[in-house]
């Protein structure tokens, strides 16, 4: 059997059910390619009481884990909630096609935690993913999602690609918006939501440029039209 288990947002975020299942599984994997974890593989090993093996994209997409789950109980531990990434949904489907039993154990994700900014969840539009620019390849199609959201007066959550440093991501966002003639009013920066190192900062682009020490995982939010209660809560995070 294959278990997809959400770890939540911090090392203690896994549910009691998820932890009990991980402890009794024959083998436990830790997915490490969709987000930079705010804790180490050793921390997770200590938590479940056994060594966990790292699972990168190549391993997951090879479906070797599905083959293993045909023979014994296998757990795949995933930061946040287990079906946030499309690759995990594809894994779920492949297991079902192979008639391998699958159980999903949910936990909190960044989509829950951004509510602490005061922005109302039902007012968020499509989620934008910001890819890391490469030499001679600077995709900015995520800006189209932001434009669409703004046209509907919806907030934009921007998830930052793994491996990006804070100021590189901020520059990519600023350059992409300028290129597409979109003016950024104010922005919210969220660092390691749900952990002891959580930080939420609200301000103009020039304000947030001056923030030091932002570490992954972090994300950006571009607010649209604010309800008075949203504005009041955000002011408490003003930089």
Structure commentary:
By secondary structure, the chain is an alpha/beta fold. It has two domains: 2-108, Cobalt-precorrin-4 Transmethylase, domain 1, CATH 3.40.1010.10; 111-235, Methyltransferase, Cobalt-precorrin-4 Transmethylase, Domain 2, CATH 3.30.950. Helix content is 35%, strand content 20%. The strands form two sheets. It has a five-stranded parallel beta sheet with strand order 3-2-4-1-5, sandwiched between helices. It has a five-stranded mixed beta sheet with strand order 6-7-10-8-9. The N and C termini lie far apart (48 Å).
How would you describe this structure in keywords?
single chain; 239 residues; alpha/beta; 2 domains; five-stranded parallel beta sheet; 10 helices
What is the fold's blueprint, element by element?
Layout: E1 2-6, H1 16-24, E2 27-31, H2 41-48, E3 53-55, H3 57-61, H4 64-71, E4 74-78, H5 86-97, E5 102-105, H6 110-113, E6 128-130, H7 142-151, E7 156-160, H8 166-179, E8 186-191, E9 199-204, H9 205-209, E10 218-222, H10 228-235
Parallel strand pairs: 1-4, 1-5, 2-3, 2-4, 6-7
Antiparallel strand pairs: 7-10, 8-9, 8-10
Spell the H/E element sequence: EHEHEHHEHEHEHEHEEHEH
Round the mean pLDDT to the nearest integer and report it: 95
The CATH architecture of the largest domain: 2-Layer Sandwich
The biggest sheet, with number of strands, parallel, antiparallel or mixed sense and barrel status, is: 5 strands, parallel
**CATH topology of the largest domain, which one?**
Methyltransferase, Cobalt-precorrin-4 Transmethylase, Domain 2
How big a fraction of the residues is strand?
15-25%
Strand order of the largest sheet: 3-2-4-1-5
Q: Tally the helices: what do you get?
A: 10
Tell how many strands the DSSP assignment holds: 10
* CATH class category name of the largest domain: Alpha Beta
Helical content (DSSP H or I, runs of 4+): 25-40%
Radius of gyration: 19 Å
- What is the molecular shape? elongated
Q: What's the structural domain tally?
A: 2
Q: Determine the N-to-C terminus distance.
A: 48 Å
Helix/sheet category? alpha/beta
What's the CATH H-level superfamily name of the largest domain?
Answer: Tetrapyrrole methylase, C-terminal domain
Uncertain ranges? none
């Amino acid at each position: 059997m294959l278990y997809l288990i959400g770890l939540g947002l911090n090392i203690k975020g896994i549910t009691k059910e998820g932890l009990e299942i991980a402890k009794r599984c024959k083998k436990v994997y830790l997915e490490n390619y969709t987000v930079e974890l705010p804790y180490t593989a050793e921390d997770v090993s200590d938590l479940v009481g056994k060594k966990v093996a790292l699972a990168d994209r190549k391993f997951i997409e090879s479906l070797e884990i599905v083959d293993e789950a045909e023979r014994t109980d296998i757990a795949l531990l995933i930061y946040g909630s287990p079906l946030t990434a499309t690759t995990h949904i594809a894994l779920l489907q492949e297991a079902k096609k192979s008639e391998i039993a699958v159980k999903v154990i949910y936990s909190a994700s960044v989509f829950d935690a951004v509510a602490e900014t005061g922005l109302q969840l039902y007012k968020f539009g499509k989620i934008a993913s910001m890819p890391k620019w490469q030499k001679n390849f600077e995709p900015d199609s995520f800006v189209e999602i932001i434009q669409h959201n703004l046209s509907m007066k919806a907030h934009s959550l921007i998830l930052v690609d793994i491996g990006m440093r804070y100021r590189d991501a901020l520059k990519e966002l600023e350059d992409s918006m300028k290129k597409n003639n979109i003016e950024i009013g104010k922005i919210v920066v969220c660092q390691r939501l749900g952990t002891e190192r959580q930080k939420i900062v609200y301000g103009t682009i020039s304000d947030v440029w001056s923030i030091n020490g932002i570490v992954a995982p972090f994300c950006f939010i571009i607010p649209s039209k604010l309800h008075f209660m949203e504005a009041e809560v955000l002011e408490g995070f003003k930089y």
